[in-house]
């Protein structure tokens, strides 16, 4: 049984920097122009662009713990242009040109994050390599080829199909058969980005009331444990924690994602693995895993583990079950058998928000002054930048190319009540896990079980 030297503690990324002490708690009842609930990337990017568009506005962000406490300080550090839900999915409901524009906007958002961090001297270990997605059995290879074919229909993604030899030249993953590579992804240190963004928006006059929990969001006000904050515009940026707000229990389910990080690998091991670039790395399993090579020479890998807790409960400070650590270690050492003796330094988990249609969304109702953004289903690091920027446009009353993108004002139906919700999500992930095992034993194409699961869940 593999164990991690440290678990929870919010995340390795925060342990690396030192956990912040909550600052500037709301002192009591107050009034502002804009209130944003949640100081993750979504809330912080919204505040950043609003401060640019409305320099004289009194903008407040209210955060239950500290900026970057949620998924933004715990994620895998993939600054990726991936469109949550997929382009083909959007093309069923929107004109092709708009869907293509969405992808281009996501590509630009990757570069926008790089630009803004450079402009403000935020050191977040950012390095743009691309993404390598590796197929390790016949069924996965079929999906890699289908993905590459989809890339031909959508050249905006920039997908290239790689042979085994070409894949090995980028990273030598055991049993790789083929891969696809995409250019629009950078590796980041998530907590450094959150910390740097929070400092930048504070410098621009935005107040972040940390250690202040919002109980209810209503038109014109938020009720917190420290008083009522009134404002013309009230924006919800609570992502995987949204179910904890009054009236929002079934809006987005909080899905868990978990991570482990190794100690720094010796140079000899890196030479064997041959991971010379800053490509992020993923496999084609249904219960997929994603990894990065950190700036200080570790591997951080994430995956689903225990996907969902009954009643939409969220985690406390990143705790993670032993069996999830073991699962991620098995995946990682399956990819790289030569690292079996390298210790696991830290393991943690976090929550992300999943709407019933698996599509991210943002919106703003000018009549009530209420807005929201999130539901990124695990691909929100870049999307939060674009969402925050778009929400700021909408609040400021600016009509831009961003405000007409297909994800603006998407409404999904609510999730089923318990116990259907728990049964459905756990059943789904069991099905995907079973499909992965069948495919690993030599199935030639994608398991029917996964095909049916995709249909039932509404993901295909
Ligand atoms: C383990 C893990 C790995 C991931 N890896 C990747 C990846 O590599 N690439 C990628 O694109 N995405 C990844 N994601 C998803 C990505 O991190 C998120 O989509 C993104 O960070 C969402 O940002 P956010 O600001 O919307 O949410 P969060 O960062 O979760 O921020 C929400 C904030 O709201 C606060 N809050 C919530 N409720 C209240 C309340 N009632 N009162 C006050 N404050 C409140 C929370 O404390 C939190 O700080 C990962 C997620 C996890 C958990």
TrEMBL record:
A Pfam family recorded for this sequence: DAO
Region forming the signal peptide: none
Principal EC category: oxidoreductase
Stretches of the chain forming a coiled coil according to its record: none
Gene3D superfamilies in alphabetical order: D-Amino Acid Oxidase, subunit A, domain 2 (3.30.9.10), FAD/NAD(P)-binding domain (3.50.50.60)
Keywords: Oxidoreductase
GO molecular function annotations of the record: oxidoreductase activity
EC number(s) stated in the UniProt entry for this protein: 1.-.-.-
Keyword flag Protein biosynthesis: no
FAD dependent oxidoreductase domain residues: 33-394
Protein name: NAD(P)/FAD-dependent oxidoreductase
Organism for this UniProt entry: Nocardioides ginsengisoli
